[in-house]
């Protein structure tokens, strides 16, 4: 039994060391409504290709971990009902028991590591939820970043989260949080969370070099690249704050807990913004896919014979 099944173009890229960008599938099944979810998934894959890399959308289908989906598989996943939301805890169970599962950031990082893919693009990572002191709701994504060597490009943590607490956990866990091209931490739908990011880098080449340097130092874990949403697509923080507060209160009033919280909040904010949150979400995911492809290209070039040396042996 093979552990995973690569799509044909992913298999070719793995064999030649061509750049690959991992993509998650929970954003398709639990993060966006049909049919935009399929359109966005296809568009993001096309963005990765246009930037010179091969996209690898991850999902578990009939006990097999797929690294890259065919067009038919992607469409079936986008329309499927009762898809399991797979994080670190659920992935092996879904593969052993059958059924269909979409990968979160944590599970996509695991799949990328298994296949030997270094770079992954998504919208926003999970983090520490507001009210975590009572609920203990802290996403497994943060602990995955601490132990799995994948560079994740996201637009920061979703503004529905407690961003200062999310940054504290990442700092404790030794995860570099690198704002791209600005000092401030981005806040998903908005360019700034009004908090200074722990680190800043201004080029994909530097981010690729830092990824390689972690490996040279023998450090486990990945990097979080916080890439601000393009200015023309952002929603002002002041506009969103009351909407997020209302969505969070609604989740509590409806007794939503555990892995249901994030999908509920995203759907509620979509309703309360008349769909504007989705437009912003699409713009930022596409922007992240392009940056991830650039980082993957630098890592791939460096690994080719005669390529730039990104890190010196110590
Ligand atoms: N960001 C989005 N949409 C999403 C998610 C993130 O814009 O659907 C998903 C990701 O898969 C992330 C997950 O890993 O939400 C986090 O869920 P939780 O908070 O339950 O760990
Ligand atoms: Mn959670």
What does this molecule look like?
Strands 1, 2, 3, 4, 5, 6, 7, 8, 9, 10 and 11 form an 11-stranded mixed sheet that branches. β3 and β4 form a beta hairpin. The longest helix is centred in the last third of the chain and has 28 residues, at 276-303. α6 packs parallel to α8. The chain has helices at residues 8-16, 26-29, 36-50, 71-79, 91-97, 105-115, 132-135, 140-147, 163-172, 204-217, 237-253, 261-272, 276-303; strands spanning 4-6, 20-23, 54-61, 64-67, 84-86, 100-103, 119-121, 151-154, 177-180, 199-201, 223-226. The protein is built from 13 helices and 11 strands. The chain has 314 residues and is of the alpha/beta class. It binds pseudouridine-5'-monophosphate and manganese (II) ion. The site of manganese (II) ion has 4 residues, from loops. Pseudouridine-5'-monophosphate binds at residues 24, 26-27, 30-31, 87, 104-105, 123-124, 126, 139-141, 158, 259, 262, 266, 281.
The molecules bound to the chains, other than polymers, are: pseudouridine-5'-monophosphate, manganese (II) ion
The total count of helices amounts to 13
Characterize the overall form: globular
- Helix fraction, binned, reads 40-55%
Any low-confidence stretches, pLDDT <50, length ≥5?
Answer: none
């Amino acid at each position: 039994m093979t552990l995973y099944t690569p799509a044909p173009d992913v298999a070719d890229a793995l064999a030649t060391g061509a750049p690959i960008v991992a993509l998650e599938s929970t954003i398709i099944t639990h993060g966006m409504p049909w049919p935009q979810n399929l359109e966005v998934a296809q568009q993001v894959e096309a963005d990765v290709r246009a930037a010179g890399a091969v996209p690898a959308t991850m999902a578990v289908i009939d006990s097999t971990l797929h690294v890259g989906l065919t067009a038919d598989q992607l469409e079936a996943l986008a329309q499927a009902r009762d898809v399991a939301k797979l994080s670190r805890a659920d992935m092996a169970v879904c593969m052993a028991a059958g059924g269909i599962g979409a990968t979160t950031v944590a599970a996509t990082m695991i799949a990328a590591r298994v296949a030997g893919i270094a770079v992954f693009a998504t919208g926003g990572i999970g983090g520490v939820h507001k009210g975590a002191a009572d609920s203990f709701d802290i996403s497994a994504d943060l602990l995955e970043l601490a132990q799995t060597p994948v560079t994740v490009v996201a637009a920061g943590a979703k503004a529905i989260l407690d961003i200062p607490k999310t940054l504290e956990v990442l700092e404790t866990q030794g995860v570099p949080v690198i704002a791209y091209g600005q000092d401030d931490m981005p806040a998903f739908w908005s360019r700034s969370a009004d908090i200074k990011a722990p680190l800043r880098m201004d080029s994909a080449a530097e981010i690729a070099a830092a990824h390689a340097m972690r490996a040279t130092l023998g450090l486990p874990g990945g990097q979080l690249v916080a890439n601000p949403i393009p200015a023309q697509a952002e929603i002002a923080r002041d506009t969103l704050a009351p909407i997020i507060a209302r969505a969070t209160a609604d989740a509590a009033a409806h007794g939503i807990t555990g892995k249901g919280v994030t999908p509920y909040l995203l759907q509620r904010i979509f309703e309360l913004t008349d769909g504007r949150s989705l437009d912003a979400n699409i713009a930022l995911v596409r922007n992240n896919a392009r940056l991830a492809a650039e980082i993957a290209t630098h890592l791939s070039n460096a690994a080719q014979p005669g390529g730039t040396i990104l890190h010196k042996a110590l």
